[in-house]
Specification:
Helices cover 47% and strands 20% of the residues. By secondary structure, it is an alpha/beta fold. A five-stranded parallel beta sheet has the order 2-7-1-8-9, sandwiched between helices. Helix 1 crosses helix 7 (172-187) and helix 5 runs antiparallel to helix 6. The longest helix is centred in the C-terminal third of the chain and has 19 residues, at 190-208. The radius of gyration is 19 Å and the shape is globular.
Length: 209
């Protein structure tokens, strides 16, 4: 059988929604899925590898990529560009791998506008109170930072209507199973099963002769 094209999937949601934990669990369970690697203009931190953690590029290189539309999405934070190069994603999709993008809501909407084949999943916390508890539980946020993240979370929740699916992350194992169910169902949509149907029809014609 032919290699079926992979699926492009974005997971996003407010800080503290647990999307990073879900992504790690998904990747450990699915050998048909890889995580997209982002580009950044900041310097590598100790232990970070080129092409594994990030594609490290100069500011000039990043701006050239932006100019020719080589990034699916990008943003500038603290004087550095961050973005998602499209070419490696196209390579993985052609190899039959699902490509997972774990990005913020603003970036996800940029990808939605460029890629109609995108499967978009919004990870929602059970409540703002739960989200606040998770943020405080990290022990790394100042009061000001927590307040800022909660304000951003309310804005991001208001954008959930743009996504194909909303997954409640009340318990990690259950949430991962919900995402798995979405991917399994998406794989069986007719456009992705069309080649299989054609092969079955061809086999039927061959058998007749």
């Amino acid at each position: 059988m032919r290699t079926e094209r992979g699926m492009l999937i974005v997971l996003s949601g407010p800080s503290g929604s647990g999307k990073g934990t879900l992504v790690k669990s998904l990747l450990s369970r699915r050998d048909d899925t890889v995580l997209s690697v982002s580009m950044t203009t900041r310097s590598p931190r100790p232990g970070e590898e080129e092409g594994v953690h990030y594609f490290f590029r100069s500011r000039e290189e990043a701006e050239e990529m932006i100019a020719r539309g080589a990034l699916l999405e990008y943003a500038e934070y603290n004087g550095h560009y961050y973005g998602t190069p499209e070419q490696p994603i196209l390579h993985w999709l052609e190899q039959g791998k699902n490509v997972l993008l774990e990005i913020e809501v603003q970036g996800a909407e940029q990808v939605m506008d460029r890629r109609p084949d995108l499967i978009s999943i919004f990870i929602a916390p059970p409540s703002i109170e739960e989200l606040e508890g998770r943020l405080r539980g990290r022990g790394t946020e100042t009061e000001e930072a927590v307040a800022g993240r909660l304000k951003a979370a309310r804005q991001e929740l208001s954008r959930a209507f743009r996504y194909d699916y909303v997954v409640l992350n009340d318990e990690v194992e259950t949430a991962v199973n919900r995402v798995q169910a979405i991917l399994d169902a998406e794989r069986m949509r007719y456009p992705r099963m069309k080649n299989l149907i054609l092969e079955v029809m061809e086999d039927a014609e061959t058998d007749r002769h």
